[in-house]
Amino acid sequence: MIDFDLYEAKELYPFQESTVISILNELRENGNSFNLLYQLPTGGGKTVIFSELTKRYIQEWNKKVLVLTHRIELSIQTSKQLDTRGVQSKIINSEVKSLPDQDEYLCFIAMVETLHNRLNENNQFLQNIGLVIVDEAHYNSFRKLFQFFDGCNILGVTATPLSSNKALPLRDNYNKLVVGESISGLIEKGYLADGKTYTYDVNLQGLKIGTHGDFTVNSMDSVYGNFFMQEKLVFAYEEIAKDEKILIFNAGIETSRKVEETFKKLKYNIKHLDSTFSDRDRKEIVKWFKETPNAILTSVGILTTGFDEPSVQTIILNRATRSLTLYHQMIGRGSRRLPKKSDFKIIDLGNNVRRFGFWQDYINWHDAFRFPDRFLESRVSELEDLQFEVEYEFPRHFKDILNVEKLQSFSIADAYYFAIDNGSKGRISIDQSMENHAEVIAEKAADMDEAMKLIKLLQDHIEHRLKHYSKCISKCTPNYIKYLIETYNRQLSQKLRSIIDNDF
């Protein structure tokens, strides 16, 4: 069997070798200023691939390579992997203010913010760069650096070619997507462990969607921190994975701390880890986890990337997410294969499998890259009616601008079903929603200009309500929702103009 903890690896596996060749061919055929995005599942060895690619690129093009990462741990791992390929690299961290020795290196590894600061101070900070490799390319923080590398080739690598911000699709920055081996293909060929999924139905009422599009941490702490959810977690652990090495992913620190406390009371071997820990404490806990056979590590947002421990036997998703990328990142932490590990377990306590399908399922990544809005909308609407499970959470500053309580007091779904039950048309719920929005806006708007600004401010909330309505009538195509929103905004503006004009 194959182990992907590859710091000692000398030869590429066949699919990795063919990937390096095909990417180099793309660069030869398309020339400078051509940006390529490469997709490969977590566990497929993308660091190995782009490290070998770096070596061959330097040899053929006689130009330097820059690798961009978003975490220092990834920078260190990349540097070690490049060393095994015979490429000496320099890490540009916060302590590196200048590069008087840059002629001594053919490869640099940098974190986004640090390099952005240096290039703003001196756009000649790095010279003779021919290829920029972007690790975890789905993050949008990298975009601001692209302006400094006109004329270079940019290669983005990611397990999920979906932008972390749906308003900024990856196709805007990359000319072409190359799709690597599928998860099922890597399992079949013995490169990844197979995942056995166990699901438990969870009532997600009480969850709220934030402005970033995913469920809010506060609302998940409320749902997952309660006694009944803690009981369900312990039950799932004892039924499916007792005495195995386990990673538990939570949304909030409060929940993870409660998980640690609950399991400790039952005498289970568990530790908590989150991003507030010092480097020293984190290293100690990770070392303990690696060396302890039945260790349970409950974590928050810190082990989804840049963490590889092949001995993990079970992944527990003690959270819900609307991010397909995060879903794959979390499960991927258990997919490393060992001589005595051909499969691992996935325990889903967030209805995530209903939302996204099984981890091994085929995904048309070309469709996701070309039409990300359609891709995400279709998956959510087909797999689960998320909009009915959650409330809309207003950004905190809205309370200083509008009467949020009055907005929260109205439910368009409740209004729809009340109308139907009483023999009225469900469409009346839209009129009632509009009245609610108009009243709240009119209370604060001194004139029509201010009213229009407040309508614009409430667009996410308006869209959220109208998606509720579209679900009620089982007509939720993107075009219909777009029509609803446009009509709603027009009529709301007319209503406000009438109210404000009459007030004067």
Topology:
Blueprint: H1 14-30, E1 35-39, H2 46-61, E2 64-69, H3 72-84, E3 89-92, E4 107-111, H4 112-121, E5 129-135, E6 153-158, E7 176-179, H5 183-188, E8 194-199, E9 207-209, H6 217-224, H7 227-241, E10 246-250, H8 253-265, E11 270-274, H9 279-291, E12 296-300, E13 314-317, H10 324-332, E14 343-348, H11 352-356, H12 365-370, H13 372-383, E15 390-392, H14 404-408, H15 412-421, H16 428-444, H17 448-457, H18 459-472, H19 478-503
Parallel strand pairs: 1-6, 1-7, 2-4, 2-5, 3-4, 5-6, 8-14, 9-15, 10-12, 10-13, 11-12, 13-14
Summarize the structure in words.
- This protein has helices at 14-30, 46-61, 72-84, 112-121, 183-188, 217-224, 227-241, 253-265, 279-291, 324-332, 352-356, 365-370, 372-383, 404-408, 412-421, 428-444, 448-457, 459-472, 478-503; strands at residues 35-39, 64-69, 89-92, 107-111, 129-135, 153-158, 176-179, 194-199, 207-209, 246-250, 270-274, 296-300, 314-317, 343-348, 390-392.
- The radius of gyration is 25 Å and the shape is globular.
- The chain is 45% helix and 15% strand.
- The protein is of the alpha/beta class and 504 residues long.
- The strands form three sheets. The chain has a seven-stranded parallel β-sheet with strand order 3-4-2-5-6-1-7.
- Helix 1 packs across helix 2 (46-61), helix 15 (412-421) packs across helix 16 (428-444) and helix 18 (459-472) crosses helix 19 (478-503).
